[in-house]
Fold this sequence. Notes:
Blueprint: H1 9-14, E1 20-27, E2 36-43, H2 45-48, H3 64-77, E3 80-86, H4 88-94, H5 96-113, E4 121-126, E5 141-145, H6 148-151, H7 153-176, H8 182-185, H9 191-200
Parallel strand pairs: 1-4, 4-5
Antiparallel strand pairs: 1-2, 2-3
Helix pairs in contact: 3-7, 4-5
Amino acid sequence: MTVVEPRLTLERRLLKxxxxxxxxxxxxxxxxxxxxAVGASVVTPADARRRIPxxxxxxxxxxxxxxxxxxSRAAKWVSVSAVGWASSVEIDEVGIMRALGLATIxxxxxxxAHGVVPEEAIVIxxxxxxxxxxxxxxxxxxxxxxxxxxxxxxxxxxxxxxxVARDTLMTGLHDELPAYNWASNKGYASPDHRxxxxxxxxxxxxxxxxxxxxxxxLF
Length: 219
């Protein structure tokens, strides 16, 4: 299988019209346990002239042993990055799409705390649906881009930064509740995770509103 290397083609085109590009991508949408996380990365014209970090890909395409290093170099390459979160409780309360929007708004708020003005940017959102605006964001220009995490270096950076942050959090939760083996499965519906749910039931970190027992294995 040919691996597509992300480029800066779209970002450079958008930066002719906008002072900055903010790229956002989520991780953890399909997990049975733990929060959803949204990474946000800021690319300026100066960043777009720099070489893309070696090995930067959509987080799903970066081997796990290399992710932390790639994420660290991606964070140094972009001007600013942030990760926003929405908890499993919030997912149960408002649904996954609204939770994704809340997590994104929180990531953008973190960027704002570092001097970024999201209203002055164009926001690239991986996927085909703007879930930020329905969650209550105002004044943003959001452009959903299918496969942005694969094709756009800024979105790939957001993806791997968020993935490493969420994996680290899930490993910490594993220490709290080792029966579910979250250090390995990161809350996704692996066979060992599903077996642990059958044996022990769900924890406070599981998405209780989901039909967990009937979920198929995702990987």
